[in-house]
Structure formats: structure tokens, C-alpha cells
Write a structure and sequence with these properties.
five-stranded mixed β-sheet
């Protein structure tokens, strides 16, 4: 199976917009109610046997089982018979909200994520339809269950042979969007190493440094917009909370954030295509992105968007039949790519790699990218052969030092 998600902008009527907002509010309340059930059950099991808490004490019978996705779906079915607001919303869509809560708890247990939190008004921004009818997208319209046909700006055609499995309606500051997940019943061949290889080192001074000498400066999307963002947030603080002017000021802040995110994503996509133009293999260092985001330069690491760039580069490589692989990124700047000797740690101000053993001199980031390339070629079994035959042109045979 092969899945792709296509995003299109919706052009709903005013009546449909009110219906979307009502549905999102219903989904938010269902999510909060299901979370409250689970939270109360956990608190009732954490009370001491011989004493009650001075703050609160949740008493639930001992034979009551832990709320799960299946049990809460049964409770939802029973509640739909009595609540008219729940009847207006598609039942499968509400079940997807419960599945979303279940996924949040699984992420907490398995991936050390935080405990799920209640969603205040405005925090729930999407709802999902797990099933659609036959040919839901026709004549510039998408047919959604219960809601009906909604106009859509279909910016590109859907390839033949694909089946639309689900649709997610999302609200952004620029309007309403629909994400269509399309599935093809095909087997995708595995990408094999071929062609010219390139190693990539990422950083904050130079966003990308390749093994063939390409250096790309990092554009500071968020830092450049920070001054305007500060001004807009000051205007929010001067407004009365809940007023129309307060909402308008919040909309301007959200628009600026969306603009920054769109610029960053567009630049990552164009850079990924540039890297794949003359490459058959792309190797990139496997970084601890969570650790980088929590460090002293966390704001700049998040502004660079390394994780998004890696995922976009992987997708572009897949579309263009380029082999993509992550390699160990530790100590890439402490090894000479020419003689493999350890040069030791370098200060961040030291931007030139100068090997005292062989005299090889190049830019520090380029040297790190060449080490990444060597590790990638070693992972696919090409290093020894290519170096012996002199086909490894990414690194010069010898270069005299500047001293």
C-alpha cells in the first residue's frame, strides 16, 4: 500500500462555516469529557488506602475497568441517543476524536510525552472523516458525510488509480482546508544506492554544507519577523480580553506565524529539489533534534526547522528515485576526511578545518559533510572500492595547508 495526503483549500458558504464551527466545538467537548473520565479513574486509583486527600478524593468502584477507546465508543453510542448535539455530528468522526485521545495516552506511555490536557475553546482545529463515498471529489466539490458538497479549490489533479480513504477538515487563520488521504494498492520498489553520492551537514551558520563544497546560509525566518511579532503581541495585551478588537489582534498574530511557517516550508522544498538535481544518493547526519531544541540555541534550532527539512528531503528523494539515508552524526567535525585522524574539538569560532597530520584544509562544515559522506558510503558498501579506484571525487587527494 502507498499513501499520499493532498491538501486543498475549501470555499464553504457561511452556513457551512457555522456548521464546521459547531462540529469542532462538539468534538472539543467530547474530547474533554473522555479525558475527564480517564483522569478521574487514574486519580481514584492513586488515593491512599487508609486516608483521603485534603484536596479531592475520587471514589470509583473497584470493579470499574479502566476507560479505553472501545468502552468510550460504547458510551458515545448511548449518549448519541439522548443528546441532540451529538446526533448532528457524524458518529465515525466522533470516534476518531476518541481515537485521537487514545493515541495521546499511548504517546505518553511509549514516547514519554506529557499527560494529555484539556482543550480550551479554539484549541481543537480539525475533525476527521474515516470513510467517504464513491468519487467524493467531482466538479470542484468534495462531498463530506452529513455536511454535503463543499466547494474546493483543487490546485492539482488526483492521480488515477487512487482511492480516497479519509478526509480531515482543518481550520487555519487563512481559511478552511481539507486533507485527503489517497491510497494506491501498489508495491513500491526499494530505493537502491546509485549515481553520485553527496553528504550533508546542517548547522546554524550554514544551514546546509555538502561534501562537494556547496554552502547555503541559513535564512532567519522567525528572527526577522520577531520585531513585528512583538509589536502585534503588545497590541493584544492592550485590548480587553474577549472583545472583537482582541480577536482581530490575535488573528494578525496567527497570520504572521502562518506566513513564517509557509516561507520556511517553501524554502526547504526548493532546497531539497536543488540537492536532488545531480545526486543519486543523499546521506545526512542523524541528529538529536529534541536535545537541540532544549539547548541554549533552541530558538534558532527551531527556527531552522531541521526536522521538517529532513522529512521534506526524504519525501523529495523518494519522488525523484534518490537513495536517502541517515548516518551517525557524532564527532563529524573532529575527524579529518582525508586521513581519518582525530583532530579534537574545535571552537565554534573556528570555521576552517586544518589537519596537522596530512595538511588537508577546507571549510569546517564541508569537512563534516565529507565525513558524513564517507560513513554513508561505508553503510552501503561503496567506500573501499571507490577510494581504491580513485572514483571518490568529493574529497581532493591532497591539499596544501594555508600556513
Amino acid at each position: 500500500m502507498f499513501n499520499l495526503t493532498y491538501e486543498f483549500k475549501l470555499k464553504p458558504t457561511q452556513k457551512q462555516i457555522l456548521l464546521f464551527e459547531e462540529w469542532i466545538e462538539t468534538h472539543r467537548r467530547v474530547y474533554n469529557h473522555a479525558l475527564a473520565e480517564r483522569k478521574d479513574w487514574y486519580k481514584s486509583r492513586s488515593c491512599q488506602v487508609n486516608a483521603c486527600s485534603l484536596h479531592s478524593c475520587h471514589i470509583i468502584p473497584a470493579e470499574a475497568s479502566r476507560p479505553t477507546f472501545a468502552s468510550q465508543c460504547k458510551s458515545l453510542t448511548a449518549a448519541r441517543q439522548e443528546n441532540e448535539y451529538l446526533k448532528r455530528v457524524n458518529a465515525q468522526s466522533l470516534q476518531q476524536t476518541l481515537r485521537r485521545l487514545e493515541k495521546a495516552f499511548v504517546s505518553m506511555w511509549e514516547q514519554n510525552h506529557g499527560f494529555p490536557r484539556f482543550k480550551k475553546p479554539g484549541r481543537m482545529r480539525s475533525f476527521c472523516f474515516p470513510q467517504l463515498g464513491q468519487n467524493p471529489v467531482t466538479n470542484g466539490q468534495v462531498k463530506l458525510p452529513v455536511i454535503g458538497a463543499v466547494k474546493v479549490r483543487q490546485s492539482r489533479s488526483i492521480p488515477d488509480g487512487g482511492i480516497i480513504k479519509q478526509a480531515r477538515v482543518a481550520r487555519k487563520v487563512s481559511g478552511w482546508y481539507v486533507m485527503l488521504t489517497i491510497q494506491w494498492d501498489v508495491s513500491i520498489p526499494k530505493r537502491l544506492p546509485h549515481g553520485e553520492a553527496v553528504g550533508i551537514d546542517v548547522g546554524l551558520t550554514n544551514f546546509v554544507a555538502t561534501s562537494n563544497g556547496l554552502l547555503v546560509k541559513r535564512p532567519k525566518f522567525f528572527v526577522d519577523a520577531e520585531r513585528k511579532l512583538k509589536l502585534l503581541q503588545q497590541r493584544i495585551n492592550r485590548k480587553c480580553i474577549g472583545s472583537n478588537n482582541w480577536r482581530k489582534a490575535q488573528t494578525k498574530v496567527a497570520s504572521l506565524y502562518e506566513y513564517v511557517a509557509n516561507c520556511r516550508k517553501d524554502w526547504h522544498t526548493k532546497l531539497s529539489h536543488q540537492i536532488c538535481n545531480d545526486s543519486g544518493m543523499v546521506f545526512i547526519e542523524d541528529l538529536n533534534l529534541v536535545g537541540l531544541s532544549r539547548g541554549m540555541l533552541g530558538k534558532h534550532c527551531l527556527d531552522a526547522g531541521f526536522g521538517q527539512f529532513f522529512s521534506i528531503l526524504d519525501r523529495i528523494c523518494f519522488k525523484r528515485s534518490v537513495y536517502f539515508q541517515k548516518v551517525d552524526g557524532r564527532k563529524t567535525s573532529q575527524i579529518c576526511p582525508n586521513c581519518q585522524s582525530v583532530t579534537g574539538k574545535k571552537d565554534l569560532s573556528e570555521r576552517i578545518h586544518n589537519c596537522s597530520n596530512c595538511g588537508y584544509t577546507t571549510h569546517r562544515d564541508v569537512a563534516a559533510a565529507q565525513v558524513v559522506l564517507q560513513r554513508g558510503l561505508a553503510a552501503v558498501g561503496h567506500t573501499v572500492k571507490m577510494l581504491a579506484e580513485g572514483k571518490f571525487v568529493g574529497i581532493p587527494v591532497k591539499q596544501e595547508s594555508l600556513a
